[in-house]
User: What shape does this take?
Amino acid sequence: MYFTHFFALVLASVPAALAQTGAPIQYVAAHNTTPIYGTWASGSKNVLTGPGFANPANLSFTYPLTTGVAYSFSSDGYYEVARYRFNGNGSQPNCITGVINWVHGKYQLVDNGSIILNPWADGYQQIQDPCVAVSNFIEQYNDTELYQSWQIFTDPVDGYKLHLFGRCATRRRACHPPRP
Ligand SMILES: *[C@@H]1O[C@H](CO)[C@@H](O)[C@H](O)[C@H]1NC(C)=O
Ligand SMILES: *[C@@H]1O[C@H](CO)[C@@H](O)[C@H](O)[C@H]1NC(C)=O
Ligand SMILES: *[C@@H]1O[C@H](CO)[C@@H](O)[C@H](O)[C@H]1NC(C)=O
Ligand SMILES: *[C@@H]1O[C@H](CO)[C@@H](O)[C@H](O)[C@H]1NC(C)=O
Assistant: This one.
């Protein structure tokens, strides 16, 4: 998904002020100073959606310079996610796992303020784990993702900034700060 301007993205846990009330979402300036359409990228914005990151035709990735995550939302209901992260391992500090992940599909802005990302079947990810027998493999990624709530602020320095709060495991109903 191509957008030429990249807005700032923050992944956070749910602040008290945004705890779910069940009240329908109000699309006013206090909630979103601009529509969600476009690409939102974390940190140094080296991880971006689009063909420079993932090539689904041969399940390959172009590794970005730094870790991060980007979400794109089109005005006609489609989304795309690009992620690159390292997971530490408390008991085995040298066993750092690299995960690079790409998925797209259709999203839904729910009245209760949540966002649901419904993936298509062609999402995939590559896992690199130096401490297991199969240390580098590619697998399908087709998880439905639910974010409890979202808000777009105007940051004096960064401009428009999307906050995504509380990524919820759809089956266990547990919500955590979204992972990059
Ligand atoms: C995937 O395809 C792209 C574009 O044709 C090519 O540059 C790249 O080397 C391929 N990667 C793999 C792992 O086959
Ligand atoms: C989602 O991925 C799982 C695991 O790879 C697979 O068993 C399942 O068929 C996939 N679902 C769809 C809709 O592709
Ligand atoms: C840490 O690494 C060990 C050895 O590979 C593995 O068995 C364990 O599941 C890992 N723990 C986490 C939290 O990834
Ligand atoms: C919002 O509605 C969706 C769809 O019914 C549901 O899955 C989700 O849990 C709800 N979100 C919250 C925060 O209650």
